[in-house]
Design brief:
Layout (H helix, E strand, L loop, with lengths): L10 H5 L3 H36 L5 H30 L3 H20 L4 H17 L2 H8 L4
Helix pairs in contact: 2-3, 2-5, 3-4, 4-5
Keywords: Membrane, Transmembrane, Transmembrane helix
């Protein structure tokens, strides 16, 4: 006599999104939106009062270029993070890789700008997202997908 084959896992187990995936996506969307929004508000504020402040600096061209470079970079990375989070919720493997690559960049940027409170909070959120992305439940859920 042969032993009966083990029963296959129910189909709903592989299709149910783990809470870690939802938590990682929501945390990323909130942190990226706050970072991008505050960067945009700061850029608009700097544009409005910029002339009054810049008159006290000798090399205004490099200061403006540096500020615009940082602002555009933060806005671009925040946008990529939001798009990748939505992709993660839709079970796209590329989104998992994109978020996995973005989180260490965010942690380093938060540590560099650590004298401000917001970057440290965003760095902590990125660390949590990194851990959530590496949980077995998240990796198993993505492995069961065909995308």
């Amino acid at each position: 006599m042969t032993a009966p084959a083990p029963a296959a896992a129910p189909a709903h187990v592989a299709s149910t999104r783990p809470g870690a995936v939802t938590a990682a996506a929501v945390t990323t969307i909130v942190a990226a939106t706050i970072s991008g929004g505050l960067t945009l508000v700061t850029a608009v504020f700097a544009a409005v009062i910029g002339r009054a402040v810049l008159q006290f600096f000798d090399d205004t061209g490099s200061l403006v270029a540096w500020f615009l470079g940082v602002a555009v970079t933060v806005l671009a990375l925040s946008s990529v993070a939001v798009v990748a989070s939505v992709g993660l919720l839709r079970r796209r493997r590329w989104a998992w890789w994109a978020l996995l690559a973005l989180t260490p960049v965010t942690v380093v940027a938060g540590a560099v700008a650590g004298r401000f409170l917001l970057p440290l909070g965003v760095a902590a959120a990125a660390t949590a997202v990194f851990v959530l992305l590496l949980l077995p439940s998240t990796r198993g859920w993505l492995a069961a997908s065909s995308a």
